[in-house]
């Protein structure tokens, strides 16, 4: 049997040698070249079973010229490799119909395995369209983010359910938006709904809609989030907070592809892609009986785990500059971070992840007088934020606050509740607001931090007219 033949287009001799040696060791024949011109001349022979191409080939763009290759041989599998490790590169590679994309440095054994898979029976790819990097929602070239980009690129031409996992502030909604806006449903709506922000008794009506008179206050019919997302994507954020009764109805909808409004009888056929996200541990939720295992497997067809910012510190400078540019586009002053300032940002722990970094940058842009944001200026803001987190409650600060509250109350001549109850009420509202802020509006987290059950927390929030959504 004839050897399978690979054409490798790579202008780095060391990389070309390593790949060629590995493929030849697997019994393949390999021809190599360094330019698009040489590539096209060799492909004209029609003898190749697979093409591996770098993106940067001198002044040539290895991806931009692939359309002509696909026109000549639509079934030729293509693998793209690149040191331009951005979401833009991964998406462009996917849109050309590339079988796979590998950011450099890559695992050589994985590349060989993918080459072998690609030369099995194959199908034609799709057309390409250029994307501007500034239009893409995700920033960073760390290995962890490159894997996220590869996964996103694999999801653009299908409707598989996706579960995005990660800590608060890592950008889960941005990933969902990227899958939608770069995928084949981009012409449809992107509807996001936060499960933790919807009262339990309203969640089914919010998701599935309701008919007039279905419940007290339903003075007219209304479409739910599923109907609003028809033809597009429904993003269910904080899905771990969904109550069990709503989980049962969601599972039925996903299994049947149909819904009916609350109080309605007619079925509505769904044409919606589902993307869910959570910062909770589903294993624990399932073991505690708080989440249906069958629903978990239904939504977790393709998991994407977002790394915390502390695990991709190399991306901090790019993110910081991205937010500085965003600030300028929003009419704020133009600022730059000095070298020592950027080093401090890269060393910071970022418990609030990318969201915390963005907030810090905007705060610096607004408050700093200098055009260059130095290490000293950044350290001052970080220390101020640390003091705010402490709330000046530890040490001598807390007794002073208590004395102030009691003094104010004792000077109140009014009758009513005891001093203890009134002091507690005085302190309770700011405590609830602060805990909710720490929990990013997640009521289950807040209840756990407070040591009370969720129903008690909700009752308190209603009593003090506190909106958890504003805490996000």
Automatic annotation (TrEMBL):
Tell me where in this chain the PTM 4-aspartylphosphate is found: 54
Main subcellular location: cytoplasm
Q: Which UniProt keywords apply?
A: Activator, ATP-binding, Cytoplasm, DNA-binding, Nitrogen fixation, Nucleotide-binding, Phosphoprotein, Repressor, Transcription, Transcription regulation, Two-component regulatory system
Report the PROSITE patterns cross-referenced here.
Answer: RESPONSE_REGULATORY, SIGMA54_INTERACT_1, SIGMA54_INTERACT_2, SIGMA54_INTERACT_4
Question: What subcellular locations does the record give?
Answer: Cytoplasm
According to the entry, every stretch annotated as the Response regulatory domain falls at 5-119
Q: Briefly state the protein's biological role.
A: Member of the two-component regulatory system NtrB/NtrC, which controls expression of the nitrogen-regulated (ntr) genes in response to nitrogen limitation. Phosphorylated NtrC binds directly to DNA and stimulates the formation of open promoter-sigma54-RNA polymerase complexes.
| Protein name stated in the entry | DNA-binding transcriptional regulator NtrC
From which organism does this entry originate?
A: Parasphingorhabdus cellanae
Q: Cite the source lineage.
A: Bacteria, Pseudomonadati, Pseudomonadota, Alphaproteobacteria, Sphingomonadales
Q: Which gene encodes it?
A: ntrC
């Amino acid at each position: 049997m004839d050897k399978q033949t690979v054409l490798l287009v790579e202008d780095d001799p060391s990389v070309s040698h390593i790949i060629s040696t590995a493929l030849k060791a697997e019994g393949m024949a390999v021809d190599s070249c360094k330019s698009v011109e040489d590539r096209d001349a060799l492909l004209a022979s029609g003898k190749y079973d697979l093409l591996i191409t770098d993106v940067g080939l001198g002044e040539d763009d290895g991806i931009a010229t692939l359309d002509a290759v696909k026109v000549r041989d639509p079934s030729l599998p293509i693998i793209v490799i690149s040191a331009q490790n951005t979401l833009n590169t991964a998406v462009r590679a996917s849109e050309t119909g590339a079988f796979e994309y590998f950011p450099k440095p890559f695992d050589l054994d994985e590349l060989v395995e993918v080459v072998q898979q690609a030369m099995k029976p194959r199908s034609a790819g799709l057309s390409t369209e250029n994307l501007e990097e500034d239009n893409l929602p995700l920033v960073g070239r760390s290995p962890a983010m490159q894997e996220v980009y590869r996964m996103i690129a694999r999801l653009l031409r299908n409707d598989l359910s996706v579960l995005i996992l990660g800590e608060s502030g890592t950008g889960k909604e941005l990933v969902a938006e990227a899958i939608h806006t770069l995928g084949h449903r981009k012409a449809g709506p992107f509807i996001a709904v936060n499960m933790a922000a919807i009262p339990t008794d309203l969640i089914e009506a919010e998701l599935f809609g309701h008919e007039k008179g279905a419940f007290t206050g339903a003075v007219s019919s209304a479409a739910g989030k599923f109907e609003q997302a028809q033809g597009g994507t429904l993003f269910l954020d904080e899905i771990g907070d969904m109550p069990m009764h709503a989980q049962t109805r969601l599972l039925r909808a996903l299994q049947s592809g149909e819904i009916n409004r609350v109080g309605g009888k007619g079925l509505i056929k769904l044409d919606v892609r589902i993307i869910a996200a959570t910062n909770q541990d589903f294993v624990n939720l399932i073991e505690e009986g708080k989440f249906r295992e069958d629903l978990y497997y239904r939504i977790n067809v393709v998991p994407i785990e977002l790394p915390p910012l502390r695990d991709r510190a190399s991306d901090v400078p790019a993110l910081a500059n991205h937010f500085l540019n965003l600030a300028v586009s929003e009419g704020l002053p133009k600022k730059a971070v000095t070298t020592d300032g950027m080093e401090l940002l890269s060393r910071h722990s970022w418990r609030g992840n990318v969201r915390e970094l963005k907030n810090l940058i905007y705060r610096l842009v607004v408050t700093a007088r200098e055009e260059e944001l130095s290490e000293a200026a950044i350290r001052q803001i970080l220390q101020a934020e640390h003091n705010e987190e402490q709330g000046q409650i530890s040490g001598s600060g807390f007794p002073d606050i208590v004395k102030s509250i009691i003094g104010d109350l004792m000077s109140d001549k009014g009758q009513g509740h005891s001093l203890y109850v009134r002091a507690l009420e005085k302190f309770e509202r700011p405590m609830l607001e602060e805990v909710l802020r720490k929990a990013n509006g997640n009521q289950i987290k807040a209840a756990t931090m407070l040591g009370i059950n969720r129903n008690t927390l909700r009752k308190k929030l209603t009593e003090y007219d506190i909106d958890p959504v504003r805490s996000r």
